[in-house]
Design goal:
296 residues; 7-stranded mixed β-sheet; 32% helix; Phosphoglycerate mutase-like protein 1
Amino acid sequence: MGSSCLYSGTNGMDTAAGTSLYPFHRSKTIHLVRHAQGIHNVEGEKNHDAYLSYDLFDAHLTPLGWQQVSNLHKHVHETGLAKKIELVITSPLLRTMQTAVGVFGGEGYADGIDAPPLMVANAGNSNHAAISSLNSPPFIAVELCREHLGVHPCDKRRSITEYKSLFPAIDFSLIESNDDILWTADVREANEEVAKRGMKFVNWLWTRKEKEIAVVTHSGFLYHTLSAFGNDCHPSIKSEICTHFANCELRSMVIVDRSMIGSDVPTTNYPGKIPSGLDLPSDVAAEKHPKQGASQ
């Protein structure tokens, strides 16, 4: 399971075995989103061999995909979720960045405002207006949460230089190489390797100070990463965690640090007994003065 866990209980039959208690500051809430419908989803549904086509290189969203983005954007605002998210992490591919800025970004962009747009107009053949970075959380691109690497051109990214011109307000500083050196034309990443990379990503989340984080990523990455979790839960919870995501589906989960790998410190805990004074609990007092405790 690694040193962190998406946790919901155990298979025990009694209540005590089926629930768990953890310190709040050793948990984070993550809102996992699969990108909206891309052109590769449409073509791959018709013919799986289409995934091998360079016509689908770094696949962008379809018009239906943008409608899905609009629907989820409305949902996160109606539920108040948009105000809670402190950071948006996105895979550095067109379809995930389009989804991320469309769902969690601001409204239309206006010239003259002293803030770079999250997305320029028509980025990635989107036929979409520019998207503002005003009143939105910071966005950061992370390669650990990319889709299966290799063979399928739809999963190969462009240069970071090109992405920076399309998504000016996304932070690409964590990506070390301008060109895509992870994707190879002849070797497809194994499922086990995707899961291992996913666990590395989950543990990396503990290096972030933010408590509430949105992650916009891919179906294969989500499925193989999450399948490593939930084995100590009721089967229905395991299923809820690990089933495949639909396009533009959002699931909110709590991630728990069970091995003290995180650096978070409690911000809401209060030490009590200020100013200091005697406060010996009655049961401890009974142990200290057993004769008095017995006579009471």
